[in-house]
Design a protein that fits this description.
8 helices; globular
């Protein structure tokens, strides 16, 4: 069994979608949800689905003696960032090489980097007059939104679309594709562990 941890900061629609996707899997288990915000609704979603959840401050997340023992306690093999708004510290990237992935609500390398999250991304896409938008799943590196791209999916938008319309179209892509991309990466990363079982 591969144990994943989901890192969240907000409402948790992707978090819930991922948990439900793997709920009946005999190969992948959502073992832990970590949030840097105690008021993140993702924690409520995780509780309803009986997934352990922990709130950690930015300082704790950036302290090896705080976060690494927690991940070890839950036997975490892989980390998924789903609306997590803090940078991942270098020591965690080194502890989980090519085993931390992130979802970004735009077609990187456009509209990435510090400050580009959620509504800010969709507003930038609208302001630029783009005719398509989409989602990007990428490995996490020490450069914000700069890790190797794993998968991208796009959707057309038009000038009459509001920022909320753009967000809704992009969110549909997330709901449809993100769990499958996670599963594909897990199978590729841990094939020796699960492919022949």
């Amino acid at each position: 069994m591969i144990n994943i941890a989901i890192f969240v900061s907000g409402s948790g629609t992707n978090c819930e979608n991922i948990i439900r996707y793997f709920q009946n899997s005999d190969k992948v288990n959502t073992a832990l949800v970590i949030s840097n915000r105690a008021d993140a609704y993702a924690l409520v979603r995780a509780e309803k689905l009986n997934v352990p959840r922990v709130v950690m401050s930015k300082k704790e997340i950036n302290t090896p003696d705080s976060i690494l023992p927690l991940l070890q306690k839950h036997n975490i093999d892989f980390i998924v960032l789903a609306g997590f708004l803090l940078m991942i510290p270098d020591f965690l990237i080194e502890a989980f090489p090519r085993k931390i992935i992130n979802l970004h609500p735009a077609l990187l390398p456009k509209y990435g980097g510090r400050g580009m999250y959620g509504h800010h991304v969709h507003q930038a896409v609208k302001d630029a007059g783009e005719t398509i938008t989409g989602m990007t799943v990428h490995y996490v590196s020490n450069i914000c939104d700069g890790g190797e791209i794993i998968a991208q999916y796009s959707t057309p938008i038009n000038e009459d679309d509001s920022v909320d319309d753009i967000a809704a179209k992009e969110n549909q892509l997330e709901m449809k594709h993100f769990p499958q991309v996670i599963e594909d990466v897990l199978y590729k990363t841990f094939c020796d562990k699960i492919c022949h079982n």
